[in-house]
Amino acid sequence: MIWNNHLLLIFIFTSIISIYSDELSDLNKKFISTYDHARDYLISITNPLIICNGDNVIIIHRGKRYQEQVIPKLYHDLKSISHMPFKIYLTVMFNLGTLSDDNYTELKQYLQDIRSIRNSIQFPTDIQQTQYDIIDLSIEYLETILKTKFIDQTQLNEFCQQARHLFSVNIDLAARAQLDMLDTKIRPWYEERFNDTERNTLKILIMGPKTARYGYIEKTYFYTLLGER
Q: Which positions make up the signal peptide (predicted)?
């Protein structure tokens, strides 16, 4: 009887939450609608406006909308290479000691995958070796733990330290690739297509889950372009 009463209370409480949640959701839709109208209106009266959103920028200029890709494939490829040792670490970080059967199977397949990738990747000559170094580090560590079926804390720490150094190189390379393409696409607009008045009234909107903080690549770029501090 006590158990049945407990279930009844859970059902009632859940139903109340559902009712209030639905009401709040409907009410919030009105806010979203008003927000969308306000945003669209502000965009319509702001000229020129550059909106950074993911891989692209949208340029609103004299009533027309233009879109430019500003993050190159190279940027994403460098991230993908850097994620290899990170994926390995995330797989074993809670598996110190004897390697579990599931992780063994997963990492054995992953080793085959990255060996295959190593034979097919193509990067600019001046950065190709760094990518090989990251892949080879990952292959070497995987071969060790798959052979011993054991995750040693000291070995894992050494692997992470070596990977971190290579990460820093790739982070710089990815940032440079992003900045180069961003500048190639934006500077002609700023210097050639915007007139003096438009350059002085230009607004920049950087989209994202969080406010663009100090050091954020796009924010730093536009501060430099506009001569802001």
A: 1-21
pLDDT digits (tens, 9 = 90+) for 86-111: 999 999 999 999 999 999 999 999 99
One-character DSSP codes across 94-124:
T--EEPPHHHHHHHHHHHHHHHHHHTT----
The per-type count for the chain, helices as H runs and strands as E runs, is 7, 6
Specify the amino acid at residue 229.
Answer: R
Which pair of tokens denotes residue 7?
């279930």
> How big is the CA angle at 28 (ends 26 and 31), to the nearest 5 degrees?
125
Taking phi over 0 as left and psi of -120 to 50 as alpha, with beta for the rest, 60 belongs to beta
Q: Exposed, middle or buried, 199 (CB in 10 Å: 0-12/13-18/19+)?
A: middle
Q: Using an 8 Å Cβ cutoff, are 149 and 104 in contact?
A: yes
Per-domain boundaries in the chain: 1-45, 49-229
The predicted model scores a pTM of 0.75
Provide the β-strand partners of residue 49. 60, 203
Confidence of residue 28 (pLDDT cuts 50, 70, 90): confident
Cis peptide before 48 (omega within 30 of 0): yes
